[in-house]
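BUG: 3D viewer hangs when loading the predicted structure for this chain

Environment: internal workstation, default settings.
Expected: structure renders.
Actual: progress bar stalls at 90%.

Input used:
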Amino acid sequence: MATKHEQILTYISELPVGAKISVRLIAKELLLSEGTAYRAIKEAENRGLVSTIERVGTIRIETKKKDNIEKLTYAEVVNIVDGQVLGGREGLHKTLNRFVIGAMKLDAMMRYVEAGNLLIVGNRYNGHKLALEAGAAVLITGGFDTSDEVIDLANQLQLPIISTSYDTFTVAAMINRAIYDQLIKKEIVLVDDIFIHIHETFYLSTSDTVDKWQELNEKTGHSRYPVIDHQLKVHGMVTAKDVVGVPKDTLIGKVMTPNPITVNERTSVASAAHVMVWEGIELLPVVDSEKRFMGIVSRQDVLKALQTAQRQPHVGETIDDIVTSRMDESKEEVDGFKCDVTPQMTNQLGTISHGVMTTLVTEAGRRMLRKHKKGNVVLENITIYFIKPVQIDSVITITPKILEIGRKHGKVDVEMYFENEIVAKALLMVQLID
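Structure tokens produced before the viewer hung:
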């Protein structure tokens, strides 16, 4: 039987896109407490089922596919620009294809405005009307409003017309930044993208016996299984070493390893990989927000996903991408790297930031290890000494030296120089995964 939490999520998912919901409405409709309703609505927001907009409320939105995550809904635009919805609330769930800045004559401007666009414009009532008639939403900058005729048209066409106090340039930068952030998120592989769902995998119940483990072992060839109860809550993990020499009629609950480490579907694959390496785990149960079993993710799945992600072209650059892209192999130093200190890499004093220095020495150590051993490198520990400040526009040299390298572990000494003087020194301890 579905829990109250599941009932609410199912109810929300079946609502038509654009429907308005509230804690009180959900609680009254399903005869549940407002606290339960509130928690479920927050979970629905995390899953991308609804969006909450200040001064408007919470509305059901179209669930985004991962390949279209860079598209924003008009509801998200309202939150980004701290806007006020003047009309067309029924269309807030729709996604925008692109935004157009209306800084030219009307006839010229309308050549660029199409259905699904967002026109960013000032107090030009004719422009507002023409954009809506073309199927585009309107974002009015400078805190201006619009005419009653335009508001009526927006309501009729279900196309939002939004007002913000920011100027056009600031608004465009804010929306562009949000889209860029979405592109970075698009590249992050989550457990949700790779895990094996409950109906496609095998597991044991706390009431099963060791005989059941042996049956599954012969059927699947696997030796590790999650142990769950009748409510799908994960209670433990059982492996071959737990059942060796144990009578067949012994309950699994008595031999399993209790309280196993779990991940949820929103955990990044990189985080799951780190947990697996750090704890020496081959299999992780995947659970939902209520800690119910959803499936499993194996170390093999995680490594394959990480290798695939490394081969993908990057669209949105993170700070680490920007910093490490400046590193080039030094022609003067054997197994060394050179890097220009750009303005983005400095702090408010104009010297290279400690975070950037840490990224540079870490990346140098990784690259050196990859030259000697193929596979993934997981940083286990780093000790770094910041000896001298390095100012903007300097060229630094980074020289890593492998102290130890084994089948599973490595140790690297990294030194950073500016004009032949040492400015930082670090010791990296890593785990190596084939």
